[in-house]
């Protein structure tokens, strides 16, 4: 047995198929904000157009980018109010329609049963949303209280690619980077894990076939040591890292 004893898993589109649902809710709200700030959008945002630009970022991170791009500003109170509203909109969608990503549940069950690994969730999304997600699909039993959110768990809210949330999770769990492996589906998430000194397994399962090849390259360039397209390949990838091959 190698030295890996902790798995730090991203949530959105890594454990659960939440990105499409979340971005759909998010787009409606951003279009409303743009109208209220008299921002002339070339065309309204859709869930799909937001995903292309902002996958892996949380709503607060998106709003910071959009304010810079379109030259409008929000007070902290306004921003916090919209962040809360976005959370409510998205959680309602997730509770209605969320499912696990293919093949992850069997892998989690096996990992948990082996007793070899501490399993934790490390996400940019708000804690309430992550908790609602893992509750809905029946994964909460694998993580207990070990769910960490860049939007909620830190003294100062942030978003991946900032490594702060991974550093925070390791500190809380009492683990060193070399004992952990992270799993991420986005560039910002992969950068976050890599910058925290972690070996990251990239996961491209939920991307459309046409985008997968590109995303393999994106995640590899962001620092992923290996990229898988299905959770059925996870144990083999983990074993390679554990043996020091990658």
UniProtKB/TrEMBL annotation:
NCBIfam families reported in the protein's UniProt record: HAD-SF-IA-v3
GO MF entries: phosphatase activity
InterPro entries xref list: CbbY-like, HAD-like_sf, HAD-SF_hydro_IA, HAD_sf, PGP-like_dom2
One Pfam family named in its UniProt record: Hydrolase
Name this polypeptide is given: HAD-like domain-containing protein
Highest taxon, organism lineage: Eukaryota
Source species: Dichotomopilus funicola
């Amino acid at each position: 047995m190698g030295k890996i004893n902790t798995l730090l898993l991203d949530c959105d589109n890594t454990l659960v198929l939440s990105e499409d649902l979340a971005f759909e809710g998010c787009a409606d709200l951003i279009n409303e904000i743009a109208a209220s700030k008299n921002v002339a959008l070339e065309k309204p945002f859709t869930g799909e157009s937001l995903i292309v630009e902002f996958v892996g970022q949380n709503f607060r991170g998106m709003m910071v980018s959009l304010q810079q791009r379109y030259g409008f500003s929000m007070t902290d109170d306004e921003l916090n109010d919209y962040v809360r509203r976005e959370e409510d909109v998205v959680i309602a969608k997730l509770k209605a329609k969320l499912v696990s990503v293919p093949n992850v549940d069997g892998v989690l069950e096996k990992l948990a049963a082996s007793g070899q690994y501490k399993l934790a969730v490390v996400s940019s999304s708000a804690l309430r949303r992550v908790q609602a997600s893992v509750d809905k699909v029946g994964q909460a039993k694998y993580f207990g209280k070990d769910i960490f959110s860049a939007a909620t768990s830190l003294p100062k809210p942030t978003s991946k690619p900032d490594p702060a949330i991974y550093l925070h999770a390791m500190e809380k769990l009492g683990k060193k980077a070399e004992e952990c492996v992270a799993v991420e589906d986005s560039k910002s998430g992969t950068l976050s894990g890599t910058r925290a000194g972690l070996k990251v397994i990239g996961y491209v399962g939920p991307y459309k076939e046409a985008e997968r090849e590109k995303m393999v390259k994106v995640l590899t360039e962001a620092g992923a040591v290996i990229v898988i397209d299905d959770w059925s390949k996870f144990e083999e990838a983990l074993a390679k890292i554990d043996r020091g091959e990658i």
